User: Which sequence fits this backbone?
């Protein structure tokens, strides 16, 4: 039986202004950041309490645009590095 390779992300595909590829935004993997595809270190997705998550240790240093929030809502959490990058924009 021949193995089929499914390509999820292609470097030539359309990317939003915030740097999120349209196909990446549709992929749901709870422990992977939907922006950079690296581990997001989400405590809740690992079965721990929200109090153990890195996101609660951050002060509200910045705001993520409503467009990005809408695009990522219901998907996996972003990682700390991507969160900080999005807050700078």
Assistant:
């Amino acid at each position: 039986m021949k193995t089929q390779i499914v390509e999820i992300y292609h470097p030539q595909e359309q990317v939003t202004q915030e740097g999120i590829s349209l196909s990446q935004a549709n992929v749901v993997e709870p422990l992977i950041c939907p922006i950079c595809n690296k581990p997001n270190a989400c405590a809740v997705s690992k079965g721990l309490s929200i109090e153990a998550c890195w996101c609660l240790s951050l002060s509200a240093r910045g705001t993520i645009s409503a467009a990005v929030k809408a695009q990522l809502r219901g998907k996996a959490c972003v990682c700390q590095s991507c969160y900080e990058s999005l807050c700078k924009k």
